[in-house]
Amino acid sequence: MTVRGPVRPAELGLCLPHEHLFSIFGEEPAERAEYDVPKLMGEVSRYVNSLRFLGCRAIADGTTAWFGRDASLLRRVSTATGVHVLTNTGYYGAANDRYVPRSAREESASQIAARWVSEYTGGIDGTGVKPGFMKLGVDAGPLSAIDEKLFEAACLAHHETGLLITVHTADAVEATGRQLELLKKHGIRADAWVWIHANNCKDEGALKSAAEAGAWLSFDGVAPENVERHLALVGMMKSMGRLKQVLLSHDGNSFRAGGRPMKPYSGLFTHFIPALREAKYSETEIRLMTVDNPARALTIGKRLL
Ligand SMILES: [Zn+2]
Q: How far is the CA of 172 from the centre of ligand 1 (A)?
């Protein structure tokens, strides 16, 4: 489900599954972010166009509600560039729950799930744009009460919508085990869940056990300076026969509020894919990780036990 409507998974093309076209991350939470729209449209469209020339066909945008999601602007960028864009529903519980709205603290998991399901059935903020996946975030340590409630809400919403559950988890290893347990409790398969920023986890055992459980591992810190780290992670997955669960992206951001410099998301094309070729990965394997896997992960469908 893209911001311009549904597309067939086979038509998605090379997809960056975790980027931010724009956000106000680091600023005060806001129900509606106020952007300098002409400046944003100019800079983001120009950047996304440059990615299209490098071969990018689709981008899943991980900016959630309350830190800058704007479905109508995402649709405008997608229309202007011809690149597919997917947006999300959910709340971001990392950063010490700063971007979780007060309503979610009072509501039950099923009330929160109902809000997210209504974005899927009725569109976001009156735009008619529907989310293509769910995005959450958790803090390090054992899953906090609010993060656990949000995750349960995501499980309930998955049963209604079949949307993929992507969760900023990074090196929160304890939270990883708990999320896998909760999925099971709700009768949901591990391949409904993406461990976002798995590249930040130094615990190889935890990465391997999530992979063996069937989860998606998102190595989304690709940049020219850390090609070796990402090659090592992909190599680990290849040695396990699990390349079909790898997602590759940059966690870039082409327009950040507060005068922060943009974070590029082109290193996959300029550095990492060439490095994979150099390391003798086949074109089939490269296509698997950059085209087939994101399409399969983002295909809407209930993944039940
Ligand atoms: Zn991100």
A: 15
User: Ligand 1 centre from 85 Cα, in Å?
Assistant: 15
CA of 183 to the centre of ligand 1 (A): 22
Report yes or no: 17 and 87 within 8 Å, Cβ to Cβ: no
**Measured in angstroms, how far is the CA atom of residue 252 from the centroid of ligand 1?**
7
Contact indicator for 204, 232 with CB cutoff of 8 Å: no
Query: pLDDT at position 282, please?
Result: 98
pLDDT of residue 149: 97
**The token pair that represents 200 in the structure block:** 């930040």
- Give the span between the Cα atoms of 256 and 199, in whole angstroms: 23
Instruction: Kindly report whether the global pTM for this prediction surpasses the value 0.90.
Output: yes
Distance 255 CA to ligand 1 centre (A): 13
> What pLDDT digit, counting tens, does each position of 10-34 carry?
999 999 999 999 999 999 999 999 9
Question: How far apart are the CA of 87 and the centre of ligand 1, in A?
Answer: 12
**Residue 141 has what pLDDT?**
86
**Ligand 1 mean position, distance from CA 171 (Å):** 14
CB 165 within 8 A of CB 192: yes
Question: What sections of the chain are H helices per DSSP?
Answer: 37-54, 71-81, 102-106, 109-122, 145-161, 173-185, 204-213, 227-239, 267, 273-278, 283-287, 293-298
Size (the chain), residues:
305
The pLDDT of residue 200 = 97
Residue ranges, the chain, pLDDT below 50:
none
Residue 221 Cα to ligand 1 middle (Å): 9
| Ordered structural domains, the chain, with CATH | 9-298 (3.20.20.140)
